[in-house]
Design brief:
Blueprint lengths: L21 E5 L10 E8 L10 E5 L14 H9 L3 H6 L8 E5 L25 E7 L6 E7 L6 E9 L7 E6 L1 E3 L15 H6 L22 E2 L11 H4 L6 E7 L2
Parallel strand pairs: 1-5
Antiparallel strand pairs: 2-5, 2-11, 3-4, 3-6, 6-7, 7-9, 8-11, 9-10
């Protein structure tokens, strides 16, 4: 999987502070020291769904990650189906997109982008159940958007789209997000149709290797909507891979 956040399960980096919220700092392209700074914390609220490293972006109103009821973009499809955030990160690169002030998905101290696992780390991966990011905004960048794949699904994801940032230093906001279905792939719930890290991150195993590529035979020409959840039709087990909404909590604070 290109630019894969997937740190092969066999080489799972056991972070010394795995149970502690990790912090990453991103500087706006403008480099203006007086620019507003925000702390964004992403917490996994599920009992059985690891999340891919969140794409967190500060932007102007013109940026749109997803809209329920509409078709997913190619970039969102790649994230929701394959855990491939490279196309989305490329689109949101501040160097090429004037509407974006800052974007990141890499946790400080990690060898690379790290997944966010359910509380209690059921797969024994050593990863944390929450990650925090400090991002510096820019002129007109009054919004934050976030997106992560629900790893043990065919095309599930969770996120926020164009949420207004706190205005004053010390102001905070907390948001809870439900799981979404991108509507781009049939929900086979078969390990062979899901990204390989699913099994290891949740503590199960099978003879299916999984895949990080889109399968045209499973294509679904639908729209983004609330995810129906794990039904238990194949390899996925509701009590192991399921969740009850909300799937994630997002805490945003203006700190400077």
């Amino acid at each position: 999987m290109s630019r894969r956040w997937i740190l092969a399960i066999g080489l799972v980096v056991v972070l010394a502070a795995a149970a502690v919220v990790s912090v990453v700092k991103v500087t706006a392209a403008s480099g203006n020291g007086s620019a507003p700074r925000y702390l964004v914390t992403v917490t996994n609220l599920t009992y059985g769904q690891p999340l891919t490293p969140p794409v967190v972006v500060l932007h102007r109103h013109s940026v749109d990650l997803f809209d329920p009821g509409r078709r997913a973009s190619y970039e969102l499809q790649q994230l929701a189906e394959n855990g491939n955030d490279a196309p989305l990160l490329a689109t949101l690169d501040p160097a090429n997109n004037r509407a974006v002030s800052a974007v990141t998905n890499v946790a400080r101290g990690a060898a690379g982008p790290a997944p966010i696992v359910p509380k209690g780390d059921p797969g024994g991966s050593g990863f944390a159940s929450a990650q925090s990011f400090i991002l510096t905004g820019g002129r007109g960048a009054n919004y934050v958007s976030i997106a992560s794949m629900l790893i043990c699904t065919n095309d599930g994801f969770v996120g926020l789209d164009s949420i207004k940032l706190p205005r004053h230093v010390g102001d905070t906001a907390t948001y809870f997000a439900a799981g979404y279905d991108a509507g781009t792939e049939k929900n086979t719930e078969d390990f062979r149709d899901m990204v390989p890290p699913c099994q290891g991150l949740i503590g199960v195993s099978s003879s299916d290797d999984g895949t990080g590529s889109t399968n045209p035979d499973l294509a679904q020409n639908g729209v983004i909507g609330l995810h129906p959840g794990v039904q238990g039709g194949s390899d996925l087990v509701p009590g192991t891979h399921g969740w009850v909404d909300p799937t994630a909590m997002y805490f945003v604070e203006r700190i400077g």
